[in-house]
Amino acid sequence: MNEKKGVYKVKDLSLAKGGRLKVEWAESRMPVLMALREKYRKTKPLKGYRIAGCLHVTKETAVLVRTFVDAGAQVSWSGCNPLSTQDDIAAAIADDGVSIFAWHGMNVKEFYWCIEETLKIKPNLTLDDGADLIFTVHNKYPEMAGTTIIGGTEETTTGVQRLRAMAQDGALKYPVIAVNDAETKWDFDNVFGTGQSTLDGILRATSVLLAGKNVVVAGFGHCGRGVALRAKGLGANVIVTEVKPTAALKASLEGFQVMSMNDAAKIGDVFVTATGVKDVIVDRHFKSMKDGAIVCNTGHYDCEVNIGDLKKRAKSVRTVRANNEEYTLSGGRRIYLLAQGRLVNLAAAEGHPSEVMDMSFANQFMSQLRLVELHKKGQLLENKVYDIPVEQDQEIARLKLQTMGLSIDKLTSDQITYMTDYSAGT
């Protein structure tokens, strides 16, 4: 620990200078969050509150952390995935005096150690991406949920689904705001962010030409749709696999081939899972794949591709490029697994572009601020999962349009009256 710094454990503090340059670049691309920072820098509404965060350590995350600090909060941070931390960014955050426990390539034991370290500040608020921090509180430190912690926020689809299940069972011990479910998050971050960053990760790990290749996208939710759109834009023949009839129908009407994974496995060149569900690609699929098939995942957890099945079938394994392992099967067929089956857009690339994270993290900041404001008024929420207010969603979108130099129309008073006049007919 440096004398003037918080407690930290990062790969190499000397990387901070390069990390800080990346953070400054992100700040130049995140005008909404920067406007919020400027607005609350003087009043410091978060003063006296402690935030424990568990979220991918990227340059955009550093901008969010700086904004919390400038608004008065004490922050302690960890990464939410063993391979998504960017070491220069972690160093920059530590060098700014923030407690952080994160480095690229940690094992599972180290991952949870880092989360537990963040809880030593006895947080009032938690911020999650995947809900591992919230689960740790509930499983190991339930007394915090009943005392110091007043609420939390959740960034991603998988985490929100699990937290809603907890709330349904009455197991959730404090209120959580589902930032992921904001329109300004999942219709932008999930679609445009995941789409671009996933292909960025694939290209960095392989340098293959996607034009003309059969790209199989498992799942046509917001993330899968983004991947499919961007792959199509690069000239790929996109195949979508789904379990939800309406999602499959949407994919078909948007011009994508739709088939089962059993059939897609035989013809795919590149496979991307984006479902949030385990065992999407398993042994029978590996058995069918052609020589040279590339397999990766862009979901939060590394369970979508059954790596155990692939290892059992493999005769040898070697790393041929960074984040690219070649599994040679009997008969000489080769399957290339990217980023060890973890989310390829962050493990093999830099994650989502700053411009879309601007809105997502503005929602995070505003949601944390909302929890504090309610606490100060004595208006505590029930232990449920909450959507962000529609007004907040639209305000963030309005600010984003404003920073882009775009203007839109407004309803007239007559139009508003017409919309609520149920007596008006044809």
How would you describe the overall organization of this protein?
The model has no long low-confidence stretch (mean pLDDT 96). Helix 4 links the parallel strand 3 (74-78) and strand 4. The longest helix is centred in the middle third of the chain and has 24 residues, at 183-206. This protein folds into two domains: 8-181 and 352-403, Adenosylhomocysteinase-like (Rossmann fold); 193-342, Rossmann fold (3-Layer(aba) Sandwich). Helices cover 45% and strands 16% of the residues. The radius of gyration is 22 Å and the shape is globular. The protein has 18 helices and 16 strands. The chain has helices spanning 16-27, 31-40, 59-70, 87-95, 108-118, 132-140, 142-145, 157-168, 183-206, 222-233, 245-253, 261-267, 283-288, 307-313, 344-347, 354-376, 390-403, 413-419, and strands at 8-9, 50-54, 74-78, 99-101, 125-128, 151-154, 176-178, 214-218, 237-241, 257-258, 270-273, 293-297, 314-321, 324-329, 334-338, 385-386. The strands form two sheets. The chain has an eight-stranded parallel beta sheet with strand order 1-4-3-2-5-6-7-16, sandwiched between helices. It is an alpha/beta fold.
